Amino acid sequence: MAATNVKAAANRDLAREVAQRRTFAIISHPDAGKTTLTEKLLLYGGAIQLAGAVKARRAARHATSDWMEIEKQRGISVTSSVMQFDYDDHTVNLLDTPGHQDFSEDTYRVLTAVDAAVMVIDAAKGVEAQTIKLLEVCRLRNTPIITFVNKYDREVRGPLETLEEIEATLKIDCAPVTWPIGMGKTFRGVYNLLEDRLLRFQPGQERAAVDAELIEGVDNPRLDDLFPQEIPTFREEVDLIREASAPFDLELFLAGLQTPVFFGSAINNFGVQDVLRALLDWAPPPQERYAGERAVQPAEKPFTGFVFKIQANMDPKHRDRVAFFRVCSGRYQPGMKVQHLRLGREMRIGNAIIFMANERVTSEEAVAGDIIGIHNHGQLQIGDTLSEGEDLDFRGIPYFAPELFVAVRPKDPFKAKQLQKGLKELGEEGAIQVLTTEMGRTVLGAVGQLQFEIVKHRLAGEYHVDAVYEPITLHTARWLSYPDKIMRETFEKRESGSMATDVDGNPVFMATNRYNLELAEERWPDVRFHATREHGEILATD
Ligand code: G4P
């Protein structure tokens, strides 16, 4: 009896801990203010003490990591990182994503590991092409999205115009939650429409002081006293918006159909706390995840999860390889033994790490929603499932058909082995797609041009091999699946000039132009040509 009670209490604890988790990604076009917002959120969480720490950390990383030079030179963030902090009885896991479109595959993988996303939009620039792409990716998974329209301390577009643009271009209903008072030099702060109040504080203050003034009601005369110039326009806009826009609806938000919109200025800390509150109050706790046969509930006792990202050589001083692992159920404990389902064998997870804002620390425990880093020597790949026994397979991390290609060879022919090793590891990491043609040529495929640059840089820095890229006329590639073995043999013999294999040994059709692909599809109606495939998936015969 006593043992049953202990067990029941442990299960209750797990459910309670899971309910306190919030795991989300920040997405934006480069320069919209993602890093600044991240930093302000971490300041609230007390995870960092000083504004500028995230940028400093980025700079420190540049100093220690050679290949991130490219990040620095171009002022972009190539890799994505994970930060955990506690705020108001919650444990928040924040996943940063590379803003640059050349790395959208990486962003997609990160989005498979979160339960919500914050989309940052630069109010001056409005919705940019990359934001449209990112939102499409969120929509594939119905990820609930919170929108933060940034930089109201500049002369930007009016909030009504921005809302219209978001609705029209991103095709998502907007429910404004806060509204800016003034703009540019006369930006006074944001009024919370739902709570019908303004919490006043000075620009740049890290948080509202305990005795910060609270002004309730849009018609409050105190607003006229304080901001006589800005208030008439503000009232007009609020009247309009209250009539014209739909109120915030939690269910629509959770279904990914409506986005609550917050206005503000990340750098001045205006409107940031409202975003954090929304994350805690409205964003969902860890959700169930489909794993082949069934959905795994986050509060189930057995430990399960999947790898969504591999990062090799994060610290060039110690050649390491870390798998970023999203816990989907149960509880991680140091030294625990789990089943590695793709390899069909047991694996011990020694010292997993959690990624705090400023440092990596050894993880004592982790539950659903948490992201742990597992050191490994290549056993773990993107998409791998680990479980405490049950045969599960978390799916959904795709590769996209590459659209850019180069042939690659080592500058020094004696370094062919190093090149292959480097490409194998970088391919597994998802940094690039590596294809081997029927003629034995190695071809790199990418979604964005910058991927090639990064790979070249990393091959030189981490594997000590100079790669030479040569142009190759290719339009696109498609993964193939066949109804049977005979069809496979016939197809691959006849189309041998267009055949290649990917890192997992999947057959790939390489098209020199669009017509080439269309023709092959017409000629072989029983063969399937796939523009995406999931990690680890072997397609060859359906
Ligand atoms: P990202 O991660 O999305 O690429 O953007 P990041 O936060 O690095 O911000 C891009 C630029 O926009 C930075 O300026 C940053 O200071 C500025 N910024 C962010 N939030 C605001 C805001 O609320 N108002 C205004 N006016 N600017 C903002 P930078 O000059 O590129 O960098 P830095 O010199 O500030 O480091």
Description:
By secondary structure, the chain is an alpha+beta fold. It folds into three domains: 27-65 and 119-281, P-loop containing nucleotide triphosphate hydrolases (Rossmann fold), CATH 3.40.50.300; 289-387, P-loop containing nucleotide triphosphate hydrolases (Rossmann fold, 3-Layer(aba) Sandwich); 398-534, Alpha-Beta Plaits, CATH 3.30.70. Helices cover 30% and strands 28% of the residues. The protein has 15 helices and 33 strands. An eight-stranded antiparallel beta sheet has the order 28-25-27-26-30-31-29-32. Helix 6 (129-140) links the parallel strand 4 and strand 5. The radius of gyration is 25 Å and the shape is globular. Mean pLDDT is 85; it is low at 60-68 and 74-80. The structure holds guanosine-5',3'-tetraphosphate. Residues 28, 30-36, 55, 99, 150-151, 153-154, 265-268 line the site of guanosine-5',3'-tetraphosphate (G4P).
